[in-house]
Amino acid sequence: MKEENYVDTSKSNETLSFLMSGLVALAENNWMYPYPSTLIRARGLLFGAYIEQGNWKFQSISEFLRMIQTPLKDWWPFSELPDGIDPDIPMIDSQLQISSQVEELLLDLDDLSGNQKFNASELKLVLDNRKIRDAVLKVQKHPELEDAYVTLRRFLIENPWINISDGIHIPNETIQLMGKVSDFYEKPSPNMLHEGKYWLCPRCNGILIWADEKPRCATKGLCEQIVDLAQARAITNEISTLKMTFRKRVQLPGLPELELHRELAKIPGVSIALWPEADRYDLLVEKNGNMRWAIDVKDYASEFTLSNLLRQSRPPYKKDVKFYYVIPDYRERMTSGYLQKLKKLAPQAKIQLMSTFLREVTKA
């Protein structure tokens, strides 16, 4: 790659990191002034790139927000598009909802940002996300805590809210790595209350969010495409809800991991370990004592985001163990051609649909 292209790619990726973190921080502040320094920095970098092109693209923050509601490719000023993002999507929609692809990139920001610098103190998503990373690092140093980590992760997946009125019942092993419960759970936000009740998503059991009398789940466009949110069950308990970062980073991605675990457990002769080697991958599967698979379940709305992550990942190498990235079947149903496009974008990665992998283990 020519040096000028490398510099432009680096500047493009850096600008996207500032822009994403700034948008999340602004959304946390209900899109009100003062504007986050990361957003100001992103606008400055974009503005400078437009000036170099002899263009004037935006003046006010409202014009800027309108601009990023259009596809990225229509306004991105650098010759290279940023890594791992679909150029045909907008950053936010007309209701100022941040796109699921941007959220996915943000949750993996530590993985994808390299040496980029941003004001992480403004970025609640990344800061909360690091609590899980800290737990992983602790287990890496103290392998005897692996069982506690599995208990913690499974607890967060299976308990997107906890009942305060009945007392908080958290396994002792979980407390070893969780620390304070308030680091992971918080009071429900006002927009979760509807008709004086909280409503549970029929798929993930998390608390639904209400806007304009309509419910949506934690990640827009996921649960509501798989189940009918009109079937939500109401509760009136005094509760704490899992912080949104952990719902998006741990709980929702963890559902297909546990689903695969349940389906594998039905196959005779199969044993499964969850999140082995300090969560280096998701499942270690063994059949009849002589066939083994290492599995990393990936549940991303965007093939672009996932392919970028896969290109930078190093699968674990184990002798006589097959490694696969496994994709939930509903991704293919939701986006026709998802798997084919993903394999084309990340040709070196070994990828299978969950149903295909289950058939392989059954026939082995």
Strand ordering within the main sheet: 9-10-11-12-13
Q: Between the first and last Cα atoms, what is the distance in angstroms? A: 44 Å
**Number of E-type strands:** 13
Query: What is the structural class?
Result: alpha+beta
What Rg do the Cα atoms give?
A: 21 Å
Count the DSSP helices: 15
Fraction of residues in helix: 40-55%
Overall mean confidence score, pLDDT: 86
Assembly status? single chain
Kindly estimate the percentage of residues that lie in beta strands according to DSSP. 5-15%
Largest sheet: 5 strands, mixed
| Helix-strand sequence | HHHHHHHEHEEEEEHEEHEHEEHEHHEH
Pfam family, one: pPIWI_RE_Y
Domain pPIWI-RE three-gene island: 29-161
Domain REase associating with pPIWI RE: 254-363
InterPro entries: pPIWI_RE_REase, pPIWI_RE_Y
Describe this structure as you would to a colleague.
By secondary structure, the chain is α+β, with helices and mostly antiparallel strands. It folds into three domains: 120 residues, no CATH class; 99 residues, no CATH class; 97 residues. It is 45% helix and 14% strand. It has a five-stranded mixed sheet. Strands 1-8-2 form a three-stranded antiparallel sheet. It has a three-stranded antiparallel sheet with strand order 3-4-7, with no helix packed on it. A hairpin with a 3-residue loop joins strand 10 and strand 11. The radius of gyration is 21 Å and the shape is globular. About 3% of the residues have low confidence. InterPro entries: pPIWI_RE_REase (IPR040828), pPIWI_RE_Y (IPR041191). This is REase associating with pPIWI RE domain-containing protein. It comes from Leptolinea tardivitalis. It holds the Pfam family pPIWI_RE_REase.
